[in-house]
Amino acid sequence: MANSQLSDPFGFLTIDKPAGMMSHAVVSTIRRHLKVKKVGHAGTLDPMATGVLVICLGHATRLSEYAMTSTKRYVARVRLGIVTDTYDAEGQVVSEVDASHICREDVERVLPNFTGELQQIPPIYSAIKKGGRKLYDLARAGETVELEPRAVTIHQLTLIEWDAPEFVLDVVCSAGTYIRSLAHDIGQLLGVGGYLIELTRTMSGSFQLADALQLDALVNDENWMQFLISPDVVVEQLPAVYLHEVDTDHVLHGRVPEHPAPVEDGLIRAYNSAGQFFALLQVKNAKLHPYKVFPYATDKG
């Protein structure tokens, strides 16, 4: 199948999301300006946040789950002495106390309590669903909700700047970690409260802020496809097989290829003889079975 049968490109873009813009608005802007039919993102950033927003184009939307579950890195600025209902600068202040007695050493002393595997309670103003409804909808309706802790992992937590009553953290964490909750919880442990005032995502898996594109520049660049990142970057940890034309055709039509399975179980990246990534295969009973196939990723001429 030739690429001409589908207008959408197949890959990822890394965007430095502007502050004040919702993640889905970035997606809509790209879809409209670049005239790409299928566009998504791999992990929401709050409107106030900036930094790495991974954009999925074409069949790469079917690989978004692998980007979403990758390790994240953030730079977060926290202000002590104030608590808001959203745990960030966009919420209403619910309490305010004097935090002038808190010093850098106090913050550094409590940080080890927030590293490793944790049970984190998410903010009530979040998109997590409970009973089929998003928490922020329940909160806005004035309903009382019992928040359930979620398992997260904070791999690294470093104080990189102190300017009382504010400080800046470098956070390396698992997907699903709420930095707003981290800011709130640190403030609570210090006895003065705290909230998130700035947040930048500097890494999402293999996607780095240093490589991110400015949205305005991207949508005005006629040669924007030069920035397209290969779709297999999010599954590069998986074993790979290279299939000849007959086996490639089998996979493209949902059939089992003859190529032997290189491992006993799990998922495999599949490439055609031209080196193009075109499928994920699953090992079952020592055979390779089509799992996710991207039929327009290959070009036979």
**CATH architecture classification of the largest domain:** 2-Layer Sandwich
Q: What order do the helices and strands follow? A: EHEEHEEEHEEEHEEHEEEHEHEEE
Work out the strand percent.
25-35%
Q: What is the C-level CATH assignment of the largest domain?
A: Alpha Beta
Structural class of the helices, strands and pairings? Answer: alpha+beta
By CATH, the superfamily of the largest domain comes out as: Pseudouridine synthase
- Tally the helices: what do you get? 7
Stretches where pLDDT falls below 50 for ≥5 residues? 1-6
Mean pLDDT: 91
Broad shape: elongated
**Separation of the first and last Cα atoms:** 8 Å
The largest sheet, given as strand count, sense and whether it forms a barrel, is: 10 strands, mixed
The count of domains is 3
Radius of gyration: 22 Å
Quickly describe the structure:
This protein is α+β, with helices and mostly antiparallel strands. It is 18% helix and 34% strand.
Structural account:
By secondary structure, this protein is α+β, with helices and mostly antiparallel strands. The protein folds into three domains: 3-70 and 206-231, Pseudouridine synthase; 72-203, Pseudouridine synthase; 238-297, Archaeosine Trna-guanine Transglycosylase, Chain: A, domain 4, CATH 2.30.130.10. It has seven helices and 18 strands. The strands form four sheets. Strands 1, 2, 3, 4, 7, 10, 11, 12, 13 and 14 form a ten-stranded mixed β-sheet that branches. Strands 15-16-17-18 form a four-stranded mixed β-sheet, with helices on one face. The chain is elongated.
